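Section 3.1: Structural characterization of target chains.
Under the original work plan, the team committed to producing a structural model for every single-chain target entering the pipeline before any wet-lab resources were allocated. The record below documents one such target. The sequence was received from the expression subgroup and is listed exactly as submitted; it comprises 507 residues.
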Amino acid sequence: MSDASVYDAIRSDAQLVVVEAPAGCGKTHQGADYAKALSESPDGQRTLILTHTHAACSVFAGRTKEAGSRVEIATIDSLIASIAGAYHAGLGVPADTAAWVRQRRDGYGELALRVAALLKRHPMIAKAAARRYPVVLCDEHQDSSGDQHAIVMALAGQGSRVRIFADPMQRIFPDKPVKGGLPRYDWKALTGAAQAFERLDFPHRWSRGGCPDLGAWTFKARETLQNNGRIDLTAGLPDSVELVFVENQAQARMDFRPAPGLRKSIDDFEKSQPSLLVLTRYNDTARAIRAMFFRRLPIWEGHTRYGLDRLVAAIQNNKGNAAAIAAAVVGFMDDVGKGFSPSAFGERLVREATEGCTKSTSGKPALIQELARTLMTEPDHRGVAKMLRRLCDMKEQQAAFGAIEIDHQKEFWEAVRLGDYETADIGLAEITHRRTYTRPNPPVRAISTIHKAKGLECESVILVPINAETFPDKEDARCLLYVALSRATHRLQLVLSRANPSPLFVL
């Protein structure tokens, strides 16, 4: 199989074409090139590109901008939400599906379940969507839930030519079907049902100005992980892969603090790279690594804002309750940074809001009381916005607040911007809409979780820490490791533990 056979297959008249697409093998190029060709055809066919991440939307948008409105790009959750919005009465959800989703533990999963059932009951809805989108390209389809997959197959069943790009080795999002939801689809069954099944197998990411030796090593690592083997770091490493053995001195779970005398190789690598992603598995570890680098590098926040979503839900559910909103602010500050802890600030803030700021005080308690009074005066999103803005001023002006750090700057300031809108829900919807359509890209040098870096590439990558906790011998850890290893185009530094080694490597 080759680029040419994939090219021919996706341009055929086959209803369903499935392409196994390892990282860096030209999947985006193939899909975008096909969409552009369709837009230039005499009948100007409209193509829908469905992705699972907003980062992937951004990449496809850049590759298909010449096609204009004849190519629509959206996450599969966005497509589901648009169908649900049009048929909300029949689904038993409000017209504002976005607010409904935010208020539920797995709102998108529940919405997918309802929409999949709707299309099964009323195939004419799927037929109307298929007429609008005669060609549907599904990116990173390995991350689809059973219900999401059923929705795509409903379009194929009603006439859409569906092209699925997927890589089982990049399935990094957990399979958590909602109650009553369909099980995850079977990869072998899908490839068997397709009229054409192809594989991409040329490492374009590393051949077009990158490091071919690194690409070949990454392909070999993928095969090893896929076959439940261990990557051998004792021999055959290209010069582009650097190993650093450092033990984690941190006591707290998910924290990372290398011994002072052993971190020089990490610092030297970081400072010398003009284009860099520092990848780690967990959000809390990403924040610890940012502190380790003395906050020289920002955290790539991606598109999701779980802390902001929780804050807005708490504001809407507790409007007028200053104490409950104060508690929500404390939780939000823990989501976006460090230092505004319950013991240092939060407990006092909630107590003042509960007791009505009645006691005379001075110093730091008086400043906390000032923040609480802001929430008491306006126990809603506007009060929260004013309080957060004032907190930012205090951090710069008051020594007692100097230890507060904001690691997720964009999320913090989006919370402040909520105060510009009539309600918190309206503000969140507008802010999310703007973020979606401006398609922000990560900084040239940044720290990111592996999940948020999926779909991205960078000249140099540091993967840290690599130990038994972060990469155990489990299927999801194997996929996460492969995704992380395949982001670098030129240089890769692996920060490993000998005392607590990952079982996925031979050291």
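The chain has a mean pLDDT of 92.
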